[in-house]
Amino acid sequence: MIIKYVLKMMNDDLYLEFENSAKEINELKKKPDNEELLNLYGLYKQAKFGNNKSSKPSIFNIKDKLKWESWEKQKGKGKIKSCKEYINLVEELKNKYN
């Protein structure tokens, strides 16, 4: 019972840090490049929703297709690992663009 409680608290802290990172990424002085933004998008979606279950967009819808592919690359990655990778990437980008 105590172990479950400790794990829940750790996950709650991680989730708060993840949410804060999602806010902080919008406060950068300079916008990250498209590849970095797509990587952020894929990690964010994987952390929030798990594996991508949506159908692949048309090749004529380039923006949505690239976003779908970036999320698809994260397939199989757990939510906690995705949260941690997202947080780490945000920290890297804060150092790079602030």
What's the helix count?
A: 4
**Share of helix, binned:** over 70%
* N to C succession of SSEs: HHHH
- What's the pLDDT, averaged over the residues? 91
Unreliable parts: none
Shape label = flat
Please describe what this structure looks like:
By secondary structure, this protein is mainly α. Helices cover 70% and strands 0% of the residues. It contains 4 helices and no strands. It has helices spanning 2-24, 34-49, 62-72, 79-97. The longest helix has 23 residues, at 2-24. The radius of gyration is 15 Å and the shape is flat. The model has no long low-confidence stretch (mean pLDDT 91).
Topology:
Layout: H1 2-24, H2 34-49, H3 62-72, H4 79-97
Task: Summarize the entry for a quick read.
The protein has 98 residues and is mostly helical.
Features of this protein?
single chain; 98 residues; mainly alpha
